[in-house]
Amino acid sequence: MTHRPPHILGLAGSLRRASWNRHLLHAAATSVPADTTMDLYETLAEVPLFDEDQELATPGGPPGVRRLREAIAAADGLLIATPEYNHALPGVLKNALDWLSREGQVLDDLPVAVLGASSGPWGTRLAQASLRQVLHTCGALVMPSPTLFVAHAEQRFDARGRLCDPALQASLSRFMESFAGWIDRVTPDDRLPDVA
Ligand code: FNR
């Protein structure tokens, strides 16, 4: 008997069409272990600015928030690729996490991994540190290691956004294998039931 194959949802903290972080998640989705599936959440832009008045006025939250919450609830793990804006996580990502920390609390006890790509030399170290702080506050079970900081992102992907750095590809495959292991380790048995 083995556990049901885990499903990972990828969330990029950038709305930019040619986002390096979205490219990184696409590469991650093709780097998961054989018994794991992954898809990307593509409509973060539909999450409105957090507003407690709107929260009170719309039980269940606005449609853009409900959809994100449901996608996360249906996943066994969340992989967040964050850009770095002014040495922290971007506002669109923090805004979404603020909504998610409220009704439903889908981040609580959720296995999460973080990585990130930036054009700078430090590869989102500070953004990931700030993101981890927020996720811990929301009760997420954040994979402590390995870490993956993608610096000089413009050198890692080709013109079509495909990962073209073999060393990074190897690190990403190890990272995804570790995340699948982390999900298996921290998920209670009744959430990943055995299959024959
Ligand atoms: C940046 N960028 C940036 N990079 C970095 O390494 N450290 C930083 O503090 C910042 N600050 C920053 C602020 C703002 C407002 C912007 C728009 C950009 C550069 C950033 O990492 C780069 O634009 C990435 O390519 C953004 O990620 P996506 O959109 O490609 O996923």
Short description:
The chain has helices at 20-29, 52-57, 63-73, 91-100, 125-137, 166-186, and strands spanning 2-3, 7-12, 37-41, 77-81, 111-117, 141-142, 149-150, 194-195. It is α/β, with parallel strands linked by helices and 196 residues long.
Layout of helices and strands, plus pairs?
Blueprint (H helix, E strand, L loop, with lengths): L1 E2 L3 E6 L7 H10 L7 E5 L10 H6 L5 H11 L3 E5 L9 H10 L10 E7 L7 H13 L3 E2 L6 E2 L15 H21 L7 E2 L1
Parallel strand pairs: 2-3, 2-4, 4-5, 5-6, 5-7
Antiparallel strand pairs: 1-8
This protein binds ligand FNR.
Bound chemical compounds: ligand FNR
> What percent of the residues sit in helical stretches (DSSP H or I)?
25-40%
CATH architecture level-2 label: 3-Layer(aba) Sandwich
In terms of DSSP E residues, the strand content is 15-25%
Structural class: alpha/beta
Head-to-tail CA distance between termini: 5 Å
From the spread of the alpha carbons, the general shape counts as: globular
Segments where pLDDT lies below 50 for 5+ residues? none
CATH class: Alpha Beta
CATH superfamily: Flavodoxin domain
Number of domains: 1
Could you describe the largest sheet, including whether it forms a barrel? 6 strands, parallel
Number of discrete helical segments: 6
CATH topology: Rossmann fold
Average pLDDT over all residues: 95
Protein architecture, described:
The protein has helices at 20-29, 52-57, 63-73, 91-100, 125-137, 166-186, and strands at 2-3, 7-12, 37-41, 77-81, 111-117, 141-142, 149-150, 194-195. The chain is α/β, with parallel strands linked by helices and 196 residues long. It has one domain (2-188): 3-Layer(aba) Sandwich (Rossmann fold). Helix 1 (20-29) links the parallel strand 2 and strand 3 (37-41). It is globular and about 50 Å long. The N and C termini lie close together (5 Å). The structure holds ligand FNR. Ligand FNR binds next to helix 1.
